[in-house]
Amino acid sequence: MTLTPPIRAEYERDLPPFRDAPVERDVPLASRIWAQDWLRRLVIVLSLAAIWELAARLQANPLLLPTFGQTARAFVTGMQSGVLPERSWASIQVLLKGYALGAVLAFLLTSLAVSTRFGRDLLSTLTAMFNPLPAIALLPLALLWFGLGQNSLIFVLVHSVLWPLALSIFTGFQGVPGTLRMAGRNYGLRGWRLVVHILIPAALPSILSGLRIAWAFAWRTLIAAELVFGASSGRGGLGWYIYQSRNELYTDQVFAGLVMVILIGLLVENVVFATLERATVRKWGQQA
Amino acid sequence: MTMMQPLSVQQAALPDPLVRVQGVTLEYATPQKVVRATHRIDLDVHEGDRFILLGPSGCGKSTLLKAVAGFHAPTEGRILLDGTPVRGPGADRMVVFQEFDQLPPWKTVLGNVMFPLLASGRLPRAEARERARDCIARVGLSGFEDSHPHQLSGGMKQRVAIARALAMKPRVMLMDEPFAALDALTRRKMQDELLELWDLERMTLIFVTHSIEEALVVGNRIALLSPRPGRVRAEMNCHDWTLHSTGGADFQSAARRIHDMLFADLGEAPR
C-alpha cells in the first residue's frame, strides 16, 4: 500500500503586532558578572594560592616550600629594594633584543619562502633540522663563539624564536585563501607589496599565535640559560637571581623570582597579546 | 549547428572589439597530468557588452576568465585588450570573484573599495575616498562604509566587490559566477541591480555562469562552451530579456534551446 499524506484545510491569519512578551530581555546579573574573563581567572589564581598556602602550612618547612604569604613578603621586599625590578629589566632587555632579531629573520625567511620554490625548500629544510634542537644545547657553542656576554644569550634566543615563528608564519601564509591572493594581484600587487598588503594581514591569526609561542620559548630559554650559565657581563637577570637565592637557601626569594617570571608572562599575554588580538583579528572577524 | 542570425552580414560594420580572444588554448598541470581546459577559443567582446560565458561545470569558463584577468597564460593563441596582448594581472581588468573571502577582512567596506585605487597608485587618498564613497552609494551600501566584511551578508559582500571593481573604472569587469553562492532571492535582486547599474555606467562585463536563466537575463550575448575541453559551441544574442521576461514563451524556448545544446553535448538528455 502506498502512503499518501492526508490533505488538510488551508488557513490564513492576520498577525497583530507582537506584544505578549518582550522580544529582548536582559541576561541575569549573576551570569553577566560570571561572563567576565578576568573574574573567572582571578578565582582560579586565588584558589591556587589558597591550595599553596595550605600545602605549605601542612608541610611546615620553609626551606623546601615557603608559604604564599612568605613568598609575597619576599616579593614585596625584593621589589622595594629594587633588586627584582633591576634583574627583571636586565632579562627583558636581552629577551627583547633576541626576540626582535628572531622575528625579523623569521619574516625574511618566510617572505623568501612564499615567493620562490628554493626559499620554500630552504625554510622547510632548516626548520626540520633546527626546530627540534634545544636552544640550551647550543649555549656551550655560543659561549665559545661569542664569549661570556649578552651576544651568546641573544644567539640562543634567536635560535629559540626563529624556527617556531617561521613555521607559524609560513603555515599562515599558506592558509591565505587563493581568491584573496588573486584579488591582491588583480590590484597589481606583487612581491613584497603582496606580502605586506595581503599575506601578512590575512595570516595574522597564525602570526600572532606564532609570536606568542615564540615569546614563551624565548622566556624559557633565557631563564634556563641564566640558571645554567649564570651572570653575563657582570649583571645577572632573573634566572641568575633565582640561582643565587637557591645557593644561599633563600627559598622564599627563589619563589619570588619564579612569581616574577609568571607575572611578566601573564602581563605580556593578557595585556600585549590580548590587546593586539582585540585590535586586529577579533575586530576583523578572523578569530572569535 | 544553429545560427541565430547571419553573422557574416553584420561583421563588416562592427567596430574593433575591446577584448579579443584568439585561438586560446588553456592548460593546467596537476601532479600527474596536464589537463586541457579550453581548446582554441575565439571570442570578441565589444565595449558595453554584457558578455556571458555559459557552460557546464568543468568546461573551462572560469579558467578562460582568469586567463583574460591575466592569472593564466594561454598555451596557444593570445588575448588582446584594446589590441594589446594581456600579460599578467592588472587593475584595468577588475575581477569580481564568487567567493566571499575575496574581500580582505581587515579592511572596512570603505577601505576595501579604496584599497585597489591606492595600491595601484591610481588616485591620491582624498580623491580615492570620495570615489569609493560614490561607488558604495551606487551599489546601495551607504551607511555601511565603516563595517567590516564579516558583519555583512553574502549579497552585501558581493556588492562591495562590485563597488570595488566599479571604482577602478576598469576597461572590462570580469565576473566569475559572482552570485552563485547567494540564496535564490538575493541572487535575483543582485541580477536586477547589476542590470540597473549597467544601464547607468555602461561598463563592459564578461560574466561567467552555469545558470541558463541567469545568462539570458544578465547578458546581451552568450557564448556557450562545450564540456572539457571547452570549445565555443554557439554564440547567441539575449539582449531582449530581463528579469521580467522569464515567464514568457520565447524566453522559455531560448532556455530550452540552450538546455538541449548543453545536454546533447553531455551525451544525456534528461526530461
Poorly predicted runs of 5 or more residues of chain B:
none
- Cross-sheet strand order for the largest sheet of chain B: 6-7-8-3-9-10
Reading the helices and strands of chain B in chain order gives HEEEHEEEHHHEHEHEEH
Q: If you consult CATH, what is the topology of chain A?
A: MetI-like fold
Query: What global shape of chain A is seen?
Result: flat
Individual helix count of chain B: 8
Q: What's the architecture of chain A, going by CATH?
A: Orthogonal Bundle
Radius of gyration of chain A: 27 Å
Span between N and C termini of chain B? 22 Å
| Class per helix and strand makeup of chain A | mainly alpha
Shape assignment of chain B: globular
Proportion of helical residues of chain A: over 70%
Largest sheet of chain B: 6 strands, mixed
Average pLDDT level of chain B: 86
Approximate strand percentage of chain A? under 5%
> Helical element count of chain A?
12
Task: Write structural notes for this entry.
The complex is a heterodimer of chains A (288) and B (271). Chain A is mainly alpha-helical and 288 residues long. Chain A has helices at 29-34, 37-59, 68-81, 83-115, 117-130, 135-146, 150-174, 178-186, 191-202, 204-229, 238-247, 251-282. Chain A has a single domain (71-282), classed as MetI-like (MetI-like fold, Orthogonal Bundle), CATH 1.10.3720.10. Chain A is built from twelve helices and no strands. In chain A, helix 4 packs across helix 11. The longest helix of chain A has 33 residues, at 83-115. With 271 residues, chain B is of the alpha/beta class. In chain B, 35% of the residues lie in helices and 23% in strands. Chain B contains eight helices and ten strands. In chain B, the strands form two sheets. Chain B has a six-stranded mixed beta sheet with strand order 6-7-8-3-9-10, sandwiched between helices. Chain B has a four-stranded antiparallel beta sheet with strand order 2-1-4-5, with helices on one face. Chain B is globular, with a radius of gyration of 19 Å. The mean pLDDT of chain B is 86. Classes of the chains: A mainly alpha (288), B alpha/beta (271). At the A-B interface, helix 8 and helix 9 of A face strand 6 and helix 3 of B.
